[in-house]
Model the fold of this input.
Amino acid sequence: MIEENSTIVIGAGISGSCTAYHLNKAGCDVTVIDEKKEDDIQIYSNPAVCVYPKIMLNDPNFNKFMLLSTDYVWSLIKAIGLKEEYTRKAGAIHLYEMKDGISRYEKLIKNTSYTSHDVELIDQEIIKKRFGIIDYIGFHFKKGGWINPKAFCKKLIEDKNIKKIFSSKIISVERIKGYWTILTEDKKMFTAKNIIFCSASNIKNYKYFSALKLDEYRGQVDWLSNKKNSFREVLSNDGYVIPDVNKKIIFGSSYEKNNFNTEPSHTDTVNNINKLKKLMPSLKYSLLNDRINNWVGQRAASFDKKPFVGRVLKTRNSLISPIKYSAEDLDWYEGLFINTCYGSRGFSFAPLASLSLAKLITHNLNDDDKFILNYLNPERQFFKKQGIKKQGVRFN
Ligand SMILES: Cc1cc2nc3c(=O)[nH]c(=O)nc-3n(C[C@H](O)[C@H](O)[C@H](O)COP(=O)(O)OP(=O)(O)OC[C@H]3O[C@@H](n4cnc5c(N)ncnc54)[C@H](O)[C@@H]3O)c2cc1C
Done:
């Protein structure tokens, strides 16, 4: 018999692991399936990712989502008891040239929900003294830091009630008699009431998502060993450096659309080293003669660089302005959800957005969840084109 709360999560990266964690906590029967062997999951080989708040002065909703998300990541890390060696809320400092930075900071405090408690302005003298960088000021985001992806993802899905299937590539997903039936390349079949695609750009292969626009961006990070560090905060400007990940300095990264080369590139390493030199000018450059390691990955990103989280429409022809709509008037695929396109910020955004998605599935939304799901609604481009967005209708 198929459980009414049965849910299949495709993908065991950060979005899949968080979704599985939250749904399991909410009492659902959860199966996570990934095409890779557990230890070959792409993101598992990146030693550390940053949680680095970013601001967009012209998008208050982005800033609100960022603030809520970066708060939430650390409370989730605490709740699951991730060991200290795998994460550090060290803070993150984004560097700006003097003039630009000061006016941005004023606008930030005046026009967004960020306060000086969330982000502190660090003056030129301190930046010079602490980091040896001249003519820059910094925004110090207290909720920045880093996480080891493998330890975080594995910890999220460690509960024995979450069924984990690795090395099984899903090749077909069909709705049959009110349930989702899934076939894998190795001829396994699974059936569930709900299915959630947390499989990054893989959604392109399914008819359900053909209206959604997304691309892939290749990237490379590099790292070297360093026993001594004079500071711990993540530093960023054009690139970023995480100076203290268990005696490693991680730096990067490159960003290139629709390049699918999985091999490390020497050009990327040289570019990453140049970014590192700007961020850590006092580093002993003899270190750069030592062995440099690298990790290459793909990021899926949507047309407007915001994630896609929620339901998708089955038919679109019933939408004719100016009739007022509510979410329930529309023809959504039943039990089908996506949670993807996190670009370079999966580890900041996916924990909270996945919680909101889990609450959509279990009918337990609060105001913040509604705000997040509305902001990340996969159908936002379509609604905008239809002029329906202007009516202020909420679609989740
Ligand atoms: C160079 C680089 C640096 C980055 N730095 C940062 C950073 O500092 N901070 C940050 O927050 N983010 C960073 N990112 C981005 C971050 O890695 C992504 O946002 C995040 O990994 C997205 O997570 P996801 O779970 O949505 O997708 P993924 O991690 O891609 O997971 C999707 C999973 O789905 C599985 N899958 C796909 N198709 C199928 C199928 N048919 N059947 C079964 N399984 C399938 C895949 O095997 C994969 O494990 C970086 C990315 C790159 C490339």
Remarks:
- Residues 88-145+218-297 form a domain with the D-Amino Acid Oxidase; Chain A, domain 2 fold (CATH 3.30.9.10).
- The pocket of flavin-adenine dinucleotide is lined by residues 10-16, 33-36, 41-43, 49-50, 169-170, 198-200, 202, 219-221, 252-253, 297-299, 340, 342-348 (CB under 6 Å).
- The radius of gyration is 22 Å.
